[in-house]
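_Per-residue structure_
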Amino acid sequence: MHNDTVIVRGGGDIATGVVHRLVRCGFKVLILEVEQPTVIRRTVSFAQAVFDGETEVEGVRAVLAENVNDALRAAEEKKVPVIIDEAGNSIRVLKPGIVVDAILAKKNIGTYTTMAPIVIGLGPGFTAGEDVHAVIETNRGHNLGRLILKGSAEPDTGKPGEIGGYGSERVIRSPGKGLVKTAASIGDIVEKGQIVAYVGEIPVAVPINGVLRGLIQNGLTVAEGLKIGDVDPRKRTEYCFSISDKARAIAGGVLEAVLYLGPQIFNW
């Protein structure tokens, strides 16, 4: 077992904020992803390495690893390996000291305390002291990033966090089931009604004015109602290419959990 090795399940923008913080603090981190991640904020998501082979976020580089051995080599080279492993089978092989479930599924879809000495769950769906050792609050507000050692995070509100006075209005959802064909790029300034993608033959227009902060990978097949894009009304293009305040707050909570529990378990 490697006490300084962390496996993070999920490589979206929140997970990427967590991984970035842990790597900067000296931990070896590996990401487990699905075969076709439906991440939206792809410019700040290590999951993008699944499509591009590699990607970089704020000076930290992630690479797609074909197997566990490739992943270990990449980690030794100070890179973040991304392994396609939805079931988490690599956890049994690698025996990490720490596992973080950053899938943000709003429920526990297969993460338990038996996976590692320290197991951390992000957001609702986990109970500290039962299926995980610690939970980190992910809901915007006073408790964002709070370390919970007993109990659960706040329930899922089902509503996106408010940015620039807009909540659900800034989210772009698929109008039907089909193949996505993008017609714009993350970072583009867009106007309400502008077409940024097609799902099958159905055009997808942005709901408000702003900057296109997120857009799903071209060529994926999506279900009706799936979130496929995100418009930021603040029109700050630089926000599209940097880790968000929310991700940094949650990353701080994860680091606190690791440094709080680590000395008790590993005698650091």
